[in-house]
Amino acid sequence: KPLVVHRQLVRLEVPIMIAASVLLLALSWDGKLGGWDGAVLFLGITAYTVWAIRRSRREEALAATSGAPGSAESEKPQKTARRIAAPVGYVLSGLALLVLGARWLVEGAIQLAVAIGVSEVVIGLTIVAAGTSLPEVFTSLVATLRGERDIAIGNVVGSNIYNILAILGICGILTPGGLNVAPSLINFDMEVMLAVAVACLPVFFTGYSIARWEGWLFLGCYAAYTAYLIMDATGHDALPVFSQVMLMFVLPLLAVTVSVITFRSLIRQR
Question: Across the strands, what pairs with 4?
């Protein structure tokens, strides 16, 4: 079955994710993400969090006053100390393990970059990115298998928003002298990130669902992106041909396909 996308996610969260990507690209354009840049990003995540909490409370209040099934039970949550203690313990234990695991991951990635002779940027975009995304992958898979598909998609979109605004914002504020942004990140990787964020809108909007072929489409794009990074880092002879094929054939074909599907979906909805 296709993954059903909540209309609110398409109308609110995905545009916010796109706006966060544009903001990051603009702030990084000078090659540095300084303290003030980090403060702007962190202000953005603060505003988003406050807005999300207020929206959630409004929705709960509307559900309670509308007499929806199950609202009576939700009005009287039995929040005993025993029920809260276990989840809090799990959260604190998980955070401690995450800190330790993150330290090992960074140290191992640096050593790997030195050992195989590639830049730390490439390692960060491939191995580290895949490793840090594993918790999100498992969370989304478990949520999907349990039928909680809103959690599966919201987890991915929300994680992107927090990674850009919160993580980079805090790092920009706390790092002395700011974060140096490699030219390759500005001229290629961030633009790819923005393009993928924009591509989510028509894909999500067509019937408010993600079909299996659309999932394969995203996975294929990531595989091509990873292949490009590896060939570029190793100076592979096939890189010029690969780049030309992607720019002249694959990417235009994808753009036309998504545009046609979006147009047909809009016609059917009228």
Answer: 209
CATH architecture of 3-76+84-269: Up-down Bundle (1.20)
Predicted model pTM? 0.76
Cβ pair 199, 258 in contact under 8 A: yes
Give the whole-angstrom CA distance, residue 200 versus residue 188.
19
Token digits for 42?
A: 């962190």
d(CA 161, CA 123): 22
pLDDT tens for the chain, residues 1 to 270: 667 777 777 788 889 999 999 999 999 999 899 999 999 999 999 999 999 888 878 877 777 776 555 444 444 455 556 677 777 788 788 778 877 777 787 777 778 777 777 676 777 777 777 777 777 777 777 777 777 767 777 878 888 899 999 999 999 999 888 899 888 888 888 888 888 888 888 777 776 777 788 888 888 888 888 888 888 877 788 888 888 888 787 878 778 877 777 777 767 766
